[in-house]
């Protein structure tokens, strides 16, 4: 696939509408780097160039070309029932992702 096509899929398409979505992937919240962990999506340290996707069962994949980091979180949030919300309420995916970014800073 041409590099220009990839860049089009991973860039924020409608920032003027406060919409952070790309064509094929999700993007960080606009202003994400200034938010606390509980308000950020995903972790506050991800670069604006990063992109990813979260799934219904709690799975999560996020790529950050600037920091050369790919984060994959596999889970099954719907077991034992769909009412299980700890994954979201405790911000587990973002908290684990943030651990990797903090490790990059200390290297």
From TrEMBL:
Any Pfam family matching the protein: Beta-lactamase
Residue ranges occupied by any Beta-lactamase-related domain in the UniProt entry: 19-88
Transmembrane segments: none
SUPFAM superfamilies assigned: beta-lactamase/transpeptidase-like (SSF56601)
Alphabetical list of InterPro entries matching this protein: Beta-lactam-related, Beta-lactam/transpept-like
Protein name, per record: Beta-lactamase family protein
